[in-house]
Each structure stands twice: as structure tokens, then as C-alpha cells.
Inverse folding.
């Protein structure tokens, strides 16, 4: 098989071909490692490439196939892991100079489950320091760029994961999402990314699980791959009380909905979809708006009742900001004391903002979070799914100042969070499942994402709608022109 075709083969197809002895895990892993090596100077998507460990695991996976062992659902399938998630025996730096040589003794729960399912760990993908912003650059490794246009950001904070999946550097990637950090880079890079209902995947690394805003979730090129990956990672674990009792069934099957019966026609008949072009923001890029409206037609063709959702919705940033920035000030204060100005300036600035909130203001934000949850959950009495853009405009310039206004078609649209991704962080606060899928490419060749949101524990319904949309408007055959272009020197942050 052609090496590029192998590198862009879906995880579901890889697992099936490996189980049938049509493909070797060694062949697949070696091809991806070669592609990573070729793309790394241009994209800088990996902090650490675990070539020796990956090849050793691939050889053992091949021996298991030849022995006729029982195989897991991801046996022999390579996966990358964001450098915020612990990986036993492999450096986890959090994008910080303070942890440049940190090697955990244990995997986090999600990674352990992927390995138990047979997945092969390729390496650790880039993240801004401690995942603090939607632009992937850090003092430890520099900047990661967008495979569709290296002058643009890949998004963040799971930016290396998004770039890697889009560029064929592995079919699956583990990301984390504390305000959109899976969905932002997935949309910016033209892939699939999901933040599941709070607790579906245990989060055993957070110091405050009861105030949790962050999620560990899947990134992939197809909905079926993301759904299978999510099903493997899901399930209760004692480390996370939100996960206890959460055994959601049918996730992988829902991701295959577009394959059922060979045609998705009418597959959403009876489903009520509400759509919103704005969520507290005032400006949306015209290409994004046009592609979003075209995508609504696909849902109607699938049989859904599609209507505008008109409920008033002010920006959720006044809730998200005090909670998040105060967490950072508390959690990373000792690191700042040790590193000083060797820590990312943007992180230090937001930590300082966090120190400015009083205990009463933080408690007020917690109460407002509960009200927001009740408001959004109440929407699902009248609709079954909510559909929004994922980003208000395509990928921003790679050198975007995180404190400068976002320009949308030459007009200052507001700050980074409220203007570019007002659609994502509300659902970190409320805990609702939300997936982003590509809905087209702009005239400049940049991907545009569409977000589907469901009620609590409606993850299978979200995946099913996404899979049917994918069948109606497929995207996985479109690939960025990498690593074939001449190499360019990356700007270092």
C-alpha cells in the first residue's frame, strides 16, 4: 500500500486490517514515524517522538496477531497523546521548562485504557504551557503551525494533536479541553474533536475534580474513529467522582451511523435541531457564516426539523474567567516562583488576573455556572441538538497576540476568547457533550468547523448526528499539502 494512503487510513480500518493480518502494526507504525520525521521541521507538532518504544510495541502487537491472541478494539493502531497527559516511562512536560525532564511512573486513566485496547503510543504532541491558551507555542519547544497554511495557528491548546491528525501523523490523538482546547484546534485544522459529557472519561490528574472544567477527549479524522476512541476511554474510575456510574453505551455504534444501510437519508427524521450563529459575540466571518448555513441544509436533508434558536445568550466569559484564572494562579504559582520570566508571559498575566478576584467573586462565578447549566439543559426540552459554528473565523495568524483584538475581515471583533471561540467554553462550564466536525473550506483553503451540542448524557445522539452529517458532506478525503512542500524555518515563540 502507498505510504501516504497508509498514513491517512482511518483507525477503524487499520484495526480491522491488522486483525485480518492484511496489515502489520510494524508497517503502519514505521510509516507514521517516517512521516512525523518529515513533517516535524515544518509543523513542530510533537514535543517527544517515542520511536523506539513505538516500534517495540508494534513488534509485540504483531506477535500477538500471529499467536492468535484475543485483540483489543485498537490493537496495533498508533495514537499520540497531548503533553498534558501522563504517560508511563515517557516524558510529560506540560509545555513547561519546569517539567522538561519529567517522566511519570503511571499513565493517566485514559491513556492506560487506550494501551489496554492495543493502541501504540507514537509520542507527545505540543501544547502551550499548561494548556493555557488557544495558540500552540511554549518556551520549551517554540511554535506549532497549521498544516493547511503555516502562516496560521493550529489553534490550541491541543494544537499539536490537531496538526498531527490533519497531516496524517497518526489517526488518533488524545486532547484535553478546558475551554475549547480540543474543539478549537480540531476546527482550525479540519478534523473531528469531541468534549464529552462531564465524567464520561475520568480525569485523574486535576487537583480539583469537583470544580472541573477540563476534559480528556478524542481527536480524529472521522467521527467513527473519534467515537471508538471515546468508547475505549470511557467508564467509571474511583479517581473521578463524576465518572462513577457513567457507563454510556453505544458510542462506537453511534459513530458508525453514517454506514448503516448504505444511505443516511432520513436518518435524523424527527430530530429537532436549533441553530445559533452567535453566542454573545457580534461578528462572524462571511465564509464561516455561509458554510455554516449550507451545513444546516444537510441536516434538513437528513430529515431534521431545523430552526433558529433565539434564546438570549450573553457571553459566558465573565463566568469562565474568574474560575479558570484563579485556578491557574493557585495551581501554577509555585512554578512561576521557580521560573520567573522563563514562564510564558501570557500565562503569568492571566494568573495575575486570577489573583485579583476575591473569594466572593469566585463563589459568585460558581453559582453563575450552575445557573448557566440549568439554562442550557432547559433548552433541550424544546430541541434535541444545538448546532453552532465552532469558531467565528478560520485559523488566526500564527503570531496572533493573545491580548490584541481579533480581526474578522479587517474589523476588530473583540478579545481572543469572546470573539474567536465564544461557542466552546460555555459547554465546559455546563458539562454538555459537544463535537466539532468540518463543514467546509474557505476560499483561502482554510477549514471551518461546525459544533453539535446535546443534552447531558446525550453523547451517542451527538455522535450519531455528526456521523450522518459526515456521510452527507464527507471531508476525510481532503488532505493538507504536507509534508511535500519545501521546508521553512518555524518562528520560535
Amino acid at each position: 500500500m502507498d505510504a501516504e494512503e497508509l498514513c491517512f487510513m482511518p483507525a477503524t480500518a487499520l484495526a480491522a486490517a491488522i486483525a485480518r493480518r492484511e496489515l502489520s502494526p510494524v508497517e503502519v507504525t514505521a510509516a507514521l514515524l517516517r512521516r512525523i520525521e518529515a513533517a516535524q521541521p515544518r509543523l513542530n507538532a510533537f514535543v517527544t517522538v517515542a520511536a523506539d518504544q513505538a516500534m517495540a510495541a508494534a513488534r509485540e502487537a504483531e506477535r500477538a496477531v500471529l499467536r492468535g491472541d484475543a485483540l483489543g478494539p485498537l490493537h496495533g493502531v498508533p495514537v499520540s497523546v497531548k503533553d498534558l497527559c501522563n504517560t508511563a516511562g515517557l516524558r510529560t512536560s506540560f509545555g513547561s521548562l519546569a517539567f522538561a525532564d519529567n517522566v511519570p511512573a503511571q499513565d493517566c486513566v485514559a491513556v492506560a485504557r487506550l494501551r489496554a485496547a492495543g493502541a501504540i503510543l507514537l509520542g507527545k504532541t505540543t501544547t502551550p504551557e499548561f494548556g493555557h491558551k488557544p495558540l500552540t507555542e511554549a518556551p520549551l519547544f517554540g511554535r506549532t503551525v497549521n498544516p493547511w497554511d503555516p502562516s496560521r495557528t493550529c489553534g490550541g491548546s491541543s494544537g499539536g494533536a490537531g496538526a498531527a491528525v490533519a497531516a496524517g501523523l497518526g489517526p488518533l490523538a488524545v486532547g484535553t479541553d478546558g475551554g475549547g482546547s480540543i474543539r478549537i484546534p480540531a476546527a482550525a485544522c479540519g478534523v473531528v474533536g469531541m468534549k464529552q459529557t462531564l465524567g464520561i472519561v475520568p480525569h485523574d490528574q486535576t487537583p480539583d475534580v469537583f470544580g472541573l472544567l477540563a476534559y480528556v477527549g478524542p481527536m480524529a479524522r472521522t467521527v467513527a474513529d473519534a467515537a471508538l476512541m471515546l468508547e475505549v476511554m470511557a467508564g467509571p474510575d474511583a479517581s473521578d467522582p463524576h465518572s462513577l456510574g457513567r457507563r454510556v453505551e453505544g458510542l462506537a455504534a453511534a459513530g458508525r451511523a453514517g454506514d448503516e444501510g448504505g444511505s443516511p437519508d432520513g436518518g435524523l427524521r424527527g430530530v429537532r435541531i436549533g441553530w445559533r450563529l452567535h453566542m454573545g459575540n457580534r461578528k462572524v466571518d462571511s465564509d464561516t457564516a455561509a458554510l455554516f448555513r449550507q451545513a444546516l441544509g444537510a441536516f434538513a436533508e437528513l430529515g431534521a426539523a431545523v430552526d433558529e434558536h433565539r434564546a438570549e445568550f450573553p457571553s459566558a466569559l465573565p463566568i469562565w474567567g474568574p474560575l479558570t484564572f484563579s485556578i491557574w494562579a493557585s495551581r501554577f504559582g509555585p512554578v512561576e516562583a521557580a521560573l520567573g520570566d522563563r514562564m510564558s508571559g501570557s500565562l503569568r498575566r492571566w494568573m495575575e488576573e486570577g489573583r485579583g478576584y476575591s473569594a466572593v467573586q469566585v463563589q459568585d462565578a460558581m453559582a453563575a455556572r450552575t445557573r448557566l447549566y440549568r439554562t442550557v439543559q432547559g433548552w433541550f426540552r424544546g430541541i434535541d441538538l444545538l448546532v453552532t459554528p465552532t469558531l467565528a473565523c478560520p485559523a488566526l495568524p500564527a503570531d496572533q497576540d493573545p491580548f490584541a483584538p481579533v480581526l474578522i475581515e479587517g474589523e476588530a471583533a473583540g478579545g481572543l476568547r469572546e470573539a474567536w471561540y465564544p461557542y466552546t467554553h460555555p459547554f465546559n462550564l455546563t458539562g454538555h457533550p459537544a463535537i466539532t466536525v468540518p463543514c467546509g473550506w474557505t476560499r483561502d483553503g482554510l477549514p471551518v468547523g461546525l459544533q453539535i451540542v446535546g443534552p447531558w448524557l446525550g453523547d451517542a445522539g451527538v455522535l450519531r448526528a455528526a456521523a450522518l452529517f459526515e456521510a452527507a458532506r464527507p471531508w476525510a478525503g481532503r488532505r493538507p499539502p504536507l509534508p511535500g512542500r519545501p521546508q521553512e524555518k518555524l518562528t520560535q515563540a
Remarks:
- Confidence is low (pLDDT under 50) at residues 484-493.
- The longest strand covers residues 434-441.
